[in-house]
Structure formats: C-alpha cells, structure tokens
Specification:
This protein has 3 helices and 19 strands. By secondary structure, the chain is mainly beta.
C-alpha cells in the first residue's frame, strides 16, 4: 500500500535540532537502523557546516530553499543529490541565507558516521559508492502551471551504466489532469514529492512538500492534479544491494 505523509499536517511539528530545524515526515530520529521509511525536512542555519560523513542506507537529498555547497558542488533550488549507503560525501555548507533540503530514505538510518572519526573505515560495508547530482529543476509559475494542456515527464538525471534503476524525474500536469506515476521497475522503490500545486490522493488534497512512497512490488498510483495543476518530483532508488536487503 502506498504510504503518504501530508506536509500540512506535519509542518507544525518543526523542532530545533542542534543548529538546524527539523520536521519528521516519515519515521523519527534514531540510532538504530530498521526497515521503516525515514524522511524529513532539515533547515540549516546561516553559514552552518556539517562535516563530511556517510550513512548506512541509500538516500536522496532534495535542496529546495536557500543555497550552499555539498563537497565541491553548488546546491540550491532545486537540485537532487543521491548517495549509496556507506558512501562518504560533504561537507555541507549553508550560505548566509541558510539551506533547506529533504532527506528521503527507504529505510531508517542509524545516524551519522563522520569521516574524521578514528577507525571509521572499520564501519564500512561493500558498496558501489555511487554519487549522483541532478540538473537544476525549474518550477512553473502559477499561471503557466494552471495553463498546461498536457502531461510532461522529464528526466532530471543523466543515465549511467551502473544506475540499476536510479532516476530523478519531474511529472508536470495541468489542472485536474491524471497520469500514472513512473514505474518503479526493478528498483528499491520511489518517493513522490509534491513541489508545486497539489495532487488529490484517496480524496484528500496533498499540497506542496507532501510525500508518497511506492515500494518496488507495488503498482505506481495514478496521480491526479489539483485545481491549479501539479509538479511532482520522483526519486527512484537502485535495486537493493545485499546490505540494504539485510536491514
């Protein structure tokens, strides 16, 4: 069954975590891995830095507000970053205007592993160490979105030989239009993140920043745009490695 997190119902639960602010959309803070979904919004403070690190699960990060850098790459609205489990990246550095991103995980992580820590290499597991950075994604303004007359699905990530299903796509729909979400294929499932307008799911409106997760063995849902149209980001995970299957 497709899992849903309505952002409007979660937005009021923002809390301070270190220098940042956080909203949990699926799951919660944890230092123990589990097969449960984990997704959250993180708002970095002005000039905040998070040192280079890795996680033990595959993840996407969707940068939506402010700007900054991740390693040598500039990030800002809207760029998507993917990293395999046990694959180091960073540091993340926010600009004076802060930096906001969504972290999307198909399974719950056990917490940060900083690359500067002693003996950190002893924690590493076999991984393909894939990094992917999408092209910059532009959203339609309100009248253009409302004037769309056909469904458009765009690839925002160049395909590579070892992708094993990794994909980042944008689905753009005019008012009240319908379209099936992209197929999960032989992947690790996919998140759908509403970035503009709204969609109607099971009779309920899901506005900006709401999330759906579709597992690899589930049929993708039919997306129905709200009265102002919708632009929905799709982040599809690679086929699960033996490590990811073990969680």
């Amino acid at each position: 069954m497709v899992q849903v997190s309505n952002y409007a119902e979660k937005a009021g639960s923002r809390f301070r975590r270190g220098q940042s602010w956080k909203i949990n959309l699926f799951g919660a803070n944890s230092n123990v891995s589990s097969p449960e979904l984990q997704a959250f919004r993180l708002d970095f403070n002005a000039n905040q830095t998070l040192d280079a690190h890795f996680h033990i699960v595959d993840q996407f990060q969707v940068f939506v507000e402010g700007d900054g850098t991740i390693g040598r790459d500039s990030v800002g609205p809207i760029v998507v970053h993917y990293a395999d489990h046990h694959t180091g990246y960073g540091p993340l550095v926010a600009s004076p205007y802060g930096m906001t991103y969504f972290t999307l995980r198909s399974k719950t992580d056990a917490g940060l592993n900083f690359l500067r820590e002693p003996h950190v290499r002893e924690k590493l597991q076999p991984t393909k160490r894939r990094h992917r950075m999408s092209r910059k994604i532009i959203l339609s303004n309100e009248p253009v979105l409302a004037d769309r007359t056909e469904v458009v699905i765009e690839d925002a990530l160049d395909a590579q030989d070892d992708d094993e299903g990794i994909a980042v796509k944008m689905v753009r729909m005019g008012p009240n239009m319908q379209a099936p979400a992209p197929d999960t294929g032989e992947s690790g499932g996919e998140y759908l993140l509403v970035l503009n307008g709204s969609i109607i799911h099971d009779g309920h409106a899901l506005d900006k920043y709401s999330l759906l997760f579709v597992r690899a063995d589930e049929a993708p849902p039919v997306l129905t745009a709200g009265p102002g149209g919708a632009e929905v980001l799709v982040t599809r995970y690679p086929a699960e490695s033996e490590w990811m299957k073990s969680i």
